[in-house]
Amino acid sequence: VQLQASGGGLVQSGGSLTFSCAASGSIFSIASISTMGWYRQAPGKQRELVATILTTGTTNYADSVKDRFTISRDNAKNTMYLQMNSLKPEDTAVYYCNIRPPWPADYWGQGTQVTVSS
């Protein structure tokens, strides 16, 4: 299974960005049975959870992004999205998409840089 993320880049504080992450390489819709999520890692810091979405559609957000970021999924397209609004300089990080199927496995995207200028 491969995850291909797109989006990201440089944006001014208060701006918006949208990520997408498509899963491929599976003979079935792995997304439909997996927890999907976004994580980020800022320079000198550990990777942290940004948001997750369960197969039921239930979402969970880090307190720091609540009410600003929205995670969603399209199982038919094996794709997840992250809409980021009201971006702040502290959101600057490399963002990673992740899918976690019911069996012991973790699949990660390649990481996409987001830089928010003040």
Protein described:
This protein is mainly beta. The chain is built from no helices and eleven strands. Strands 2, 4, 5, 6, 9, 10 and 11 form a seven-stranded mixed sheet that branches. A hairpin with a 6-residue loop joins strand 4 and strand 5. The model has no long low-confidence stretch (mean pLDDT 93).
Layout: helices, strands, pairs:
Elements: E1 2-6, E2 9-12, E3 17-24, E4 35-41, E5 48-53, E6 59-61, E7 69-74, E8 79-84, E9 93-100, E10 107-108, E11 112-117
Parallel strand pairs: 2-11
Antiparallel strand pairs: 1-3, 3-8, 4-5, 4-9, 5-6, 7-8, 9-10, 9-11
Oligomer: single chain
- Runs in which pLDDT lies below 50 for 5 or more consecutive residues are none
What structural class should be given to the helix and strand makeup?
A: mainly beta
Number of strands: 11
Helix % is under 10%
The residue-averaged pLDDT reads 93
Q: Please compute the radius of gyration using only Cα atoms.
A: 14 Å
- State the end-to-end distance: 37 Å
| Residue share in β-strands | over 45%
Note the total helix count: 0
**Strand/helix succession:** EEEEEEEEEEE
Main β sheet profile: 7 strands, mixed
Task: Name the overall outline.
Answer: globular
Key structural traits:
single chain; 118 residues; four-stranded antiparallel β-sheet; 11 strands
In a few lines, what is going on in this structure?
This protein has 118 residues and is mostly beta strands. It is built from no helices and 11 strands.
